[in-house]
Amino acid sequence: QVQLVQSGAEVKNPGSSVKVSCKASGGTLGNSDFGWIRQAPGHGLEWMGVAIPFVGITNYAQEFQGRLTISADESTNTAYMELRNLRPADTALYLCAHLWGNRVFDIWGQGTLVTVSS
Amino acid sequence: QSALTQPRSVSGSPGQSVTISCTGTRDDVGAYKYVSWYQQLPGKAPKVVIYDVDERPAGVPDRFSGSKSGNTASLTISGLQAEDEASYYCCSFAGGNTHVFGGGTTLTVL
What we know:
The complex is a heterodimer of chains A (about 120) and B (about 110). Chain A is an all-beta fold. Chain A contains no helices and 11 strands. Chain A has strands at about 5, 10, 20-25, 35-40, 45-50, 55-60, 70-75, 80-85, 90-100, 105-110, 110-115. In chain A, the strands form 2 sheets. In chain A, strands 2, 4, 5, 6, 9, 10 and 11 form a 7-stranded mixed beta sheet that branches. In chain A, a hairpin with a 5-residue loop joins strand 4 (about 35-40) and strand 5 (about 45-50). Chain A is globular, with a radius of gyration of 13 Å. The mean pLDDT of chain A is about 90. Chain B is built from no helices and 9 strands. At the A-B interface, strand 5, strand 9 and strand 10 of A face strand 3, strand 7 and strand 8 of B.
């Protein structure tokens, strides 16, 4: 059973950047699609963007345009999410998920808590 | 892209049925069969319980069912059990490799 294992919690200063990794273990997901979703404390799920490596496409939610980069390294079965110019409002649990053909996020990582505070 | 609209909370007694609605637009829920539902227990990552509007992944009890009419999708949980108490989120494909989530519904089993 493939699992997605994310990197550990981060504490960042406002204005800095964070890069979170998400590695497939227990198997390979091949040239798979990944999505990133975040959840602010006490709030719901917010779609951030997706990477479609097979066709080299990434797509981001409007509010993250210019600050967010999603990438995937097929050789290491790892997806990445980098968010720049961090603000306190970016404090959240960041979740990666395998996206099956735009239909469903069927496998989820455990989440990475990113805290932005001075 | 505006979030899909869900009730903030629903409740039911053990053995009863509850239905959670998820209202979008003709550009997301109304346009595609790619509506999914996720169960999130406190402190845990979400888990898919319904995909493609009404398909159940292996291992999900048949007490969970999904449907869609127009711009509104619904998740029904029949024969409520205490273990069903969780937050539930709907999600829809919205075209152009984008997706949108609902605001989430907290289910309380009385």
